[in-house]
């Protein structure tokens, strides 16, 4: 549920035609609060309802620090940037000792070498091209939803896969959209609570 809320929030914040609005009374501000004409002086627009969630729902979302290792414009798209993100190292399952059956009088055991830890690199397509140049993002630490299901996106004739979502903040009028970032001491892969 929180994934859907985050996704809907980001989608609406990146859509430059959509503006969040709230209940405002223009009559009292502009006309001195004329009590005889209050219904005509108010413009009411409902905000999207955001449901409260439990702490258990919140902890279903795995937020991590990710370092932008590369960023490039996506050919054929007016909104998308392609980001490669470093999330630290992937945890490898532990290998158990294998026992070699005796062929002679002795029994030999051989330790299976642990595989090297490999970097967890994810590719994300983000609709933030109108607000950032690729060079502005390289080397930055961002907040990343790491357990979001990969999503196929069609760009022209090509189908690409986005492997998560980078969180953003935006102003009500969507004129200012910013990636959420951390200070320089955060390491890729650190969990965000």
From TrEMBL:
Which Gene3D superfamilies does the protein's record reference? Nucleic acid-binding proteins (2.40.50.140)
Where in this chain does the record put each TRNA-binding domain?
Answer: 57-193
Protein name in UniProt: tRNA-binding domain-containing protein
Query: What keywords does the record list, in alphabetical order?
Result: RNA-binding, tRNA-binding
Q: Does the keyword field hold RNA-binding?
A: yes
Superkingdom of this entry's organism?
A: Eukaryota
State one molecular function term (GO): tRNA binding
């Amino acid at each position: 549920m929180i994934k859907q809320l985050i996704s809907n929030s980001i989608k609406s914040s990146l859509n430059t035609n959509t503006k969040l609005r709230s209940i405002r009374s223009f009559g009292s501000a502009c006309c001195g609060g004329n009590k005889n004409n209050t219904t005509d002086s108010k413009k009411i627009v409902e905000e999207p309802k955001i449901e409260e969630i439990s702490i258990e729902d919140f902890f279903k979302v795995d937020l991590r620090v990710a370092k932008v290792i590369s960023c490039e414009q996506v050919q054929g798209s007016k909104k998308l940037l392609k980001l490669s993100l470093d999330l630290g190292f992937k945890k490898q399952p532990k290998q158990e000792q294998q026992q070699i059956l005796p062929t002679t009088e002795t029994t030999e055991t051989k330790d299976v070498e642990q595989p090297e830890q490999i970097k967890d690199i994810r590719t994300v397509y983000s609709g933030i091209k109108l607000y950032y140049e690729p060079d502005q993002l390289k080397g930055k630490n961002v907040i990343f939803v790491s357990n979001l299901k990969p999503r196929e996106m069609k760009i022209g004739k090509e189908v690409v896969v986005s492997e998560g979502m980078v969180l953003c903040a935006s102003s009500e009028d969507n004129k200012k959209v910013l990636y959420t970032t951390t200070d320089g001491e955060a390491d890729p892969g650190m969990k965000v609570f």
